[in-house]
């Protein structure tokens, strides 16, 4: 799950990025509203954590511009501004959830998963493709009801594919979701991981198909 974190408090941004990545999220952190807007234009995200007090372009304006473009990206507001009027106005502007500082990281993680699940119309916190199932609570894969052992990178790629099951994803889209921006990774790395996953999924009823010119799609 790829998250855009727009937070200008340096210490909080560093801590939150590390905490979310340790929990299995892929995080792009920016500390300016204009940088956040640029990231939204250049990359795909599953959700955004937005602080209202950003420099460059504040959170209210960024949210309004996002919704004016009819982008339905789930947005969780994370801010010290916790008045009733602030919450109501921000939700009316198009925010999907609101969490006041200070907060528990476990609650933030749960809210992010719930936001993405609702945005995709999924009631149960699981993604499935045939006999392959990914549980968003335990963050584990099972295949034919047995645990599937994967390396962290393999799991990240397979999770990206199963979350968009039936929809082709390009190498670049997979790179964006699996690797952080400060990692110097070439598209060939995706090919290697896809090859490994295909080996693990042989004769299971689940396969990764290459669609020429479109990318990879998970079928089961």
Please name the defining characteristics of this protein:
11 strands, WalR-like, 220 residues, OmpR/PhoB-type_DNA-bd, transcription, alpha/beta, 8 helices, single chain, five-stranded parallel β-sheet, phosphoprotein
What this model shows, in words?
- It is built from eight helices and eleven strands.
- It starts with a strand and ends with a strand.
- The mean pLDDT is 87.
- The protein is α/β, with parallel strands linked by helices.
- It has two domains: 2-119, Response regulator (Rossmann fold, 3-Layer(aba) Sandwich); 126-219, Orthogonal Bundle (Arc Repressor Mutant, subunit A), CATH 1.10.10.10.
- Helix 6 packs across helix 8.
- It has a five-stranded parallel β-sheet, with helices on both faces.
Assembly state: single chain
The CATH topology assignment of the largest domain is Rossmann fold
Helix content: 40-55%
- What is the CA–CA distance across the termini? 21 Å
So how many helices? Answer: 8
Question: What is the CATH architecture term of the largest domain?
Answer: 3-Layer(aba) Sandwich
């Amino acid at each position: 799950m790829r998250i855009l974190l727009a937070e200008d408090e340096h210490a909080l941004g560093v801590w939150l990025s590390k905490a979310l990545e340790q929990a299995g999220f892929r995080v792009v952190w920016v500390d300016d509203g204009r940088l956040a807007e640029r990231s939204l234009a250049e990359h795909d995200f599953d959700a955004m954590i937005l602080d209202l007090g950003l420099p460059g372009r504040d959170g209210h304006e960024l949210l309004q511009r996002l919704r004016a473009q009819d982008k339905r990206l789930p947005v969780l507001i994370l801010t010290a501004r916790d008045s009733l009027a602030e919450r109501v106005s921000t939700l009316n502007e198009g925010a999907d959830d609101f969490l006041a500082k200070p907060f528990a990281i476990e609650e933030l993680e749960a809210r992010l998963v719930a936001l993405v699940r609702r945005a995709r119309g999924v009631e149960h916190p699981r993604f499935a493709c045939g006999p392959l199932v990914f549980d968003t609570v335990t963050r584990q894969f099972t295949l034919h009801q047995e645990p599937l052992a994967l390396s962290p990178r393999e799991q990240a790629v397979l999770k990206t594919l199963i979350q968009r099951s039936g929809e082709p994803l390009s190498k670049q889209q997979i790179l964006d979701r699996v690797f952080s921006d400060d990692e110097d990774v070439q598209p060939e790395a995706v090919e290697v991981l896809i090859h490994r996953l295909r080996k693990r999924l042989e004769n299971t009823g689940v396969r990764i198909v290459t669609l020429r010119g479109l990318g990879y799609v998970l079928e089961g």
